[in-house]
Amino acid sequence: MELIHIVEVLIFAAPEPISSAEIAKAVRRAATDHDAPFARELESISQKKIENAIAELGERLGQSGSPIELQEGANGWRFVTRSDYADWIRALLPEMRPEKLSPAALETLALVAYRQPITKADIEAVRGVSVDGTIQKLMDRGLIHVGGRADLPGRPMLYETTEDFMEHFGVKDLEDLPNADELRKVDLPTAESEEEKEGEGEGEEAAEGDEAAEGDTPAAEGEEAPAEETPGEEPAEEETPTAPKTEITLDIDLGSDEEEEPEEDTPEAEDEEEVREEEA
Hints:
This protein is mostly helical and 280 residues long. 48% of the residues lie in helices and 8% in strands. It is built from 12 helices and 5 strands. The protein is elongated.
């Protein structure tokens, strides 16, 4: 019984991906209870020897053209089928056909993977659209999760990738992502930078408004501003100054304190009286 065969059956029997440290611990425990002579050598086996055995097993599988290969994920090692046989497996298990992610979901997932932890506002600043539905879909698929809260006003949630993400894409660590170092250094817009731009735009508009207001010179004190003409209304005619009206008064003497003397009868007055009597 060889160590490489023991490692192979442990990886095959493990219900979940298993790490080299867990394999070494299982081998030492089994060797202690085993009576075979070779077991004495395995009682103190190191993790390094287990890793060497795993590497040798992977080489054998590759050289033999086996449809099974070893894959190391975030949680450890497991056996997987080669992608060349995917169509045959789908024909056997049609209900296990994987659901493809939309371009929008892949773009959002890439931002989380390369820039995690990241807030929803920062993702939207890059994509320019709301990502509420996309984030919820990725969380339902178990590809991202909430890893904490940012030390910002409102304490927004921070999103990170999950272990299922590593298993799904077959990467052991985030450093194994394509062009990880380069893409993490690319300058991308953030929610804070977008707010600063909006603030600068509002400041420029306010400054333009102030300049326009300064261009309008107010009327000097004591001068009346010209009245605006209402459309359709005729301008009021200017009044021509006229001469002041002369008040006519009667200079009548309404009486005096002295008694007037009766007038004496004259011949003409007597004749007038006689004419009146005859007419009567």
